[in-house]
């Protein structure tokens, strides 16, 4: 049976990357029934100014699985970010970013193999903010003072950091389930519970409770600043990290940098019964239509999708084929060459050709 998957090409470099990825996915021998849906600025006029038409959301709800290219968020003009809207509308509460080094990639770190699981709905990203000087900020400051709270300076803007029991429980349980499904050995909860007792402290306490219910997998915790140092000094000791929204954002970029940058970092967003696979990088509009951008992060997102679809052999074949091409260093885009102006750099579609050739050898 073919897997029905919603394919959102996106804009900027998105269409080229998703096309290259569709080709390598099909070359694994797995059958797909692609449900192609457009979203973003280019189609919003057709849908009454809405860059995320309802039919796209309905399609994802129906298939439960989407492969997505990046989508541009134009600055200003009241255009809401399709990426944020997707996360909100579909309650995609877990963001996954695996960070793995492949031989041949220029990086200061060897044999990194980490998975960052980031809570995606609350924390300082909840959007509860009061502008400095506003009546609301003053009212809140007065209320805080009436409860015995002290501010170092009263001319403050205020962002609220909600972290809930239910939000923490579901993200930590997700991290354990992900670890189990993917043969990982340990989950580390990352927090600043020593300072923020009622938000991060709650996160740690609930994480420990969930860990006790999942004792087939090792568990520990780290304070976020110490975690950053340990990640670069004792990388091997860590496996799956689970973090509240803000620390997850920061630490996932740290880990991406450790494995060679955004061009190589896949990603996925999960909600209940829904998974959307997409690279970490954006739509790099300056390279749009030039057959220049590196498709590997999009393809590695495809590898994650194959695992999600229980096509583990195909996933491993594709990952090995990508690793072979990286290792040889010949058929790679400009960003993976020793110098960015290297004339031997190939284009997006030639990377796909080289991977398909490797897959041919592997699948046959
Ligand atoms: P970006 O990731 O698009 O680009 C930053 C730079 O990284 C590029 O100029 C390019 O030099 C390089 N780069 C990125 N991807 C590459 C690739 N595959 N191959 C080679 N080089 C690559 O980030 P940005 O410029 O901050 O954002 C551009 C647009 O993308 C914005 O509108 C932003 O909102 C959007 N964006 C979308 C998503 C998403 O769809 N999930 C994520 C991030 C940013």
- Uncertain runs with pLDDT below 50, 5 residues or more? none
What sequence of helices (H) and strands (E) makes up the elements? EHEHEHEEEHEHEHEHEHEEHHH
Bound molecules: nicotinamide-adenine-dinucleotide
Q: In total, how many beta strands?
A: 12
The main β sheet shows up as: 10 strands, mixed
> Rg from C-alpha positions?
22 Å
End-to-end span in angstroms?
A: 21 Å
Shape from CA axes? Answer: globular
Instruction: Give me the side-by-side strand order of the main sheet.
Output: 2-1-3-12-11-4-5-10-8-9
Mean pLDDT: 95
Beta-strand residue percentage: 15-25%
- The structural class is alpha/beta
Number of helices: 11
Question: Which key terms come to mind for this protein?
Answer:
364 residues, 10-stranded mixed sheet, two-stranded antiparallel sheet, 11 helices, binds nicotinamide-adenine-dinucleotide
Structural account:
The protein is of the alpha/beta class. Helix content is 40%, strand content 17%. It contains eleven helices and twelve strands. α1 packs across α9 and α7 packs parallel to α8. It starts with a strand and ends with a helix. The model has no long low-confidence stretch (mean pLDDT 95). Nicotinamide-adenine-dinucleotide binds at residues 13, 70-73, 83, 262-263, 278, 281-284, 286, 293-294, 297, 335.
